[in-house]
Amino acid sequence: MSEKQVSDLKRSLVKFNLVELPAIDLDGKIIAGHQRLRVLQLLGRGEEIIEVRIPNRKLTKQEYNQYLLTSNAVHGDWNYDILRDFNTDLLLGIGFSEEELAHLWDDSLEVEDDEFSVEKELKKIRTTNIQPGDMFSLGRHKLICADSTNLNLIKKLVGKERADIIDVDLPYNIGLNYDTGVSGKKNYGGRINDSKTDNEYQIFISKIIASSLTVAKPDCHAFFWCDEKYVGMLQELYRQAGINQKRLCMWLKDNQNPTPQIVFNKVTEFCLYGTRGKPYLSDKIRNLNEILNKEVGTGNQLVDDIMDMLNIWLVKRLPGNQYEHPTEKPPALYEKALRRCSKPGDIALDLCAGSGSLMIACEQIKRTAYLSEIEPIFCQLIINRYEKYANKKAQKIN
After folding, report:
1. Which CATH number fits domain 3-77: 3.90.1530, 3.40.190, 3.40.1350, 2.60.220?
2. What does pLDDT average to over the chain?
3. Residue 365 contacts by C-beta under 8 Å, 6 or more apart in sequence?
C-alpha cells in the first residue's frame, strides 16, 4: 500500500473499526484482510482479539485464491507482479476483462529462447511409441499426431473450442530433406515430401488452409509462412478461402544463405497475414504518432515498441547446429503476431507444428496453443521440449 492508503485505512479503522472482517482459513492462514491486520498492528492493536470470518471447511488452493482475489477486487489494491502468476480463467472469473489482462501481461511478459538442445534430445528420441491419432495435453496446450489435411483428426484436436489466431509454418516445397536438413548432414528423422509439383503443392496447401479455417472462429487472424516463390500462389489461395489479405510480412534474419549463382543472397522468409471477419486487434499501438508521443521505453525498448508496428520482423535466427527441426523458427518470431492479434487465454493454432516453437511462445505470454504434427518423432520432440521448459508432464488424452 502507498503511504496515503495506509493513512486512509488508519482513519477508517479509528472511526469505524473493522467494517469488513478479515477471513482466516481453518489452518490459521489469512485469506483476506492482510492490510487491515497490518494497519491494526501499526495502531498498537496487534494483540487485540477481533472477530473474523472462518469457512466451514478447509479451502482448496483454487478456492483460497478465488476468495483472495474476489475480496481484493472489492476492497483492495493490486500487486501486479504477483497477480501475473494467477490462472487466466480465475482472473476472468472475478471480473477482469480480457483486454485488461492483455494490457497487464503484455507490458511485462516477453518471449525468450528456451535454449532447448537439438543434439541431446534427438539422441534420446531416435524412436518413439507415438502413433498417428495420439493426442496429448501439455498443460493448457494440446497436441495431436495427425496429417493436417485430415479434417476429422483436426476437429478431434480442437473439440468444441475455436482458434482465435492461425499461425502455420507450412512446408516450403523447396526440395528440403526433412531428415538431413539444410546442411544435408543432420539426422532429424523427418519423412515429409518437400518436392511436390506446383499443382500438388497448391492442393496440399489449400487443404491445410481449409482445415485451419474450419476450426477457427468466424472472426480470426491468419498467418501462413511460405517460400518467396509461392507468395503469389498463397495470395490466390487466400482469395479463394475468403481470407482478406492485409500484409506480406518478412522475417529479416541475421544471417544469409550464400547463393553464388544468384545475384542476391537470401536473408528473408515470408509470412502472409490476413483476416476473416473482424477479429480482436490490440489497441495498444495504432500508428507512429501514437508510439512517438506516448510513454515508451528508451534505447532497445523504444526500438522494440516501434518495430512492433512494422511488417518487417527482426528476430535473431538460431545457429544451424542448434536446430531441433530442419526448418525451426525461434519462439520470439511468433511474439509480435500473438501480442497484436490475441489476448491472454486465446487459442493459437498451428497444423504444421514442427518443433513446437509457437507453443513455447504461447506458454510464455499466457496464450493457448493447439498443435498438429504429422511426424511422430517431432511430436515426441514437442513433448520433451514442453516438459523441460514447464517442468510438467504431458498427458495422453485418448
Report:
1. 3.90.1530
2. 80
3. 105, 106, 109, 110, 111, 335, 338, 339, 344
